[in-house]
Amino acid sequence: MPARPAPAVPERPRSGTAVTGERPQDAPARATPASDEPRDPAAAWQVSTARRPRARATADVNATEGSRFMGAMRRGTARGAGAAAEQLGNVTLRLQTRLKEQAAAQRRLSAIVWARRAGYVALSALLVWIVVASPVLALDPEQAEVSGFGTVVDPADVDAVIAEYEGTSLATLATSRLADALREVPGVRDATIERVWPRGLLVELTSREPVAAVPDGEGGFWLVDAEATRVGRAGEAQESLPVVTVPVGEDHVRVLESVLGVVNQLPVALRERVSDVSASTEDTVTFELRDGPRVEWGSAEDSALKAGVLQVLLDSGQARDASVIDVSAPTLPTTKK
């Protein structure tokens, strides 16, 4: 059944306007949009039904445009993210390259440092080997020069002591120990040692020269120095040494020391004329002169003065016929025929 047309609704007059069907002449006409909505519910339903396709189409258009916009936004965001990722990748790549270069430089530096350390260790080991074990600095007894043997030191004894240190590095050689060993050699009072690089030694001995011969009770003689130290042994008395006769035993050591002190104070020319020296106590030293008188010396005190007085008496001729010269009191010497 066809729908009936809706009845026309008369327009309502605007305020201030008479319902005459004509607009006032003094005021411009204002167009009032006519409402599209019919006052009738049935007509309104028809209008709403007619508008739904257009609204749906508009919504679809809006949805499409929104989808496009969102797609564009997503593509833009993706491109921005890609560009940022690319830039970040470039930075990361450069950073990795820089870190690799730094690591390589650090490895080279470490290698150089360790190479230097290894070189230092090798050089130190070489120096230690040269100093301690190398034959370059090993002592050669043939290159040892020794002086100061004196009259009683046996060179063979000295050579035997030095030979014990053959092959020892000159840098580590204990010269003080070697000097102590040389002092044990009979007749050696002291020894000084100097290194002569690379393999030699310079040894200077101070010998103990005998000043008297003491009978040993077996037909021989001990040779003693001024300190009463035995420096050798002889089968018979030497003409250049006086024979000392003193009591034997530890209780009489001071007597021997007193006698040797007197002999040591004598001038060399006078000492060579002394043949026999004897003493029973420290204050009764006497000695015989070869081709001369006996001398009463007394104690070892004022030995230098006594020696001078004795020499004057011998040179003056006053003791030419004397058998005894007494200088025990040097200020009052006496002679006896």
Automatic annotation (TrEMBL):
Transmembrane segments: none annotated. Residues 214-326 form the Cell division protein FtsQ/DivIB C-terminal domain. InterPro entries: Cell_div_FtsQ/DivIB_C, FtsQ_DivIB, POTRA_FtsQ_type. GO terms for molecular function: transferase activity. Residues 1-61 are annotated as: Disordered. Residues 1-10 have a biased composition (Pro residues). This is Cell division protein FtsQ. It comes from Demequina sediminis. The gene is ftsQ.
